[in-house]
Write a structure and sequence with these properties.
The chain is mainly alpha-helical. 59% of the residues lie in helices and 3% in strands. The chain has a domain at 2-32 and 44-153: Four Helix Bundle (Hemerythrin (Met), subunit A). It is built from 9 helices and 2 strands; from the N terminus they run H-H-E-H-E-H-H-H-H-H-H. A two-stranded antiparallel ribbon has the order 1-2. The longest helix has 23 residues, at 52-74. It starts with a helix and ends with a helix.
């Protein structure tokens, strides 16, 4: 009970209104029993507040609002990208908007008193939301938070700036040392003298029989 009292008057009004609205959504918001025909034929011609797209969204938003306030009462810290004041303003505003859309969509289809009670409970939630915003500093608080969120999201999505890589300096090719061309060394051995022709004496010595026959 102490944690409930610590919520603040605006948040308490939002919680009570959301719980009652959730109960009201299960009651018949539309009744098509024209002239007692439904009772005569045993047909259920009523529809709850959950019927239709607007009714489903309204019910889901109401459940989310109750769960979020219950988390605050339990003291569970859930990191959110926005403040609790902004969260209350968004949820309370959406619940009120879809309650109006739901009632406008069934005005020509036999709405019951429970539909108007549901709209009244949504107005109670909207009043509690207004008190929460006023307690946090008014609309200026929400306006000051919105540019900060836009700037931070822009900085988060901006690609990081990378510095250009330093230019690669190619090393200069070292000059090649040209070795001096050396002349081939002269051979120290003397050239061999050409063979001398064989003398006639050698022929005679080698072929003595040929000379004798002549």
């Amino acid at each position: 009970m102490d944690r409930f009292n610590a919520l603040g008057r605006g948040m308490q009004i939002m919680l009570v209104g959301a719980v009652l609205l959730l109960i009201d959504l299960f009651l018949p918001w539309q009744d098509f029993d024209v002239g007692g025909l439904a009772d005569e034929f045993g047909v259920d011609a009523t529809f709850s507040g959950w019927r239709g797209f607007a009714g489903v969204v309204l019910g889901l938003l109401t459940i989310v609002l109750i769960a979020w306030i219950a988390v605050l009462i339990a003291g569970i810290d859930i990191p959110l990208p926005i403040s609790s004041t902004m969260t209350a303003a968004l949820l309370g505003g959406l619940v009120l908007a879809f309650a109006i859309i739901k009632l406008l969509s069934i005005l020509g289809d036999e709405p019951t008193i429970w539909a108007f009670i549901g709209l009244a409970l949504a107005l109670v939630i909207g009043f509690g939301t207004w008190q929460v915003v006023q307690g946090a500093g008014g609309m200026n608080t929400l306006r000051s938070e919105m540019p900060n969120r836009t700037a931070s999201s822009t900085m988060d999505t901006a690609p990081p700036m990378t510095s250009a890589p330093p230019p690669v300096v190619e090393p200069e090719a070292a000059p090649r040392d040209h070795a001096p061309m050396t002349e081939p060394e002269a051979s120290s051995e003397p050239d061999m003298a050409p063979d001398e022709p064989e003398t006639a004496a050698d022929d005679e010595h080698d072929h003595p029989h040929e000379h004798r026959n002549t």
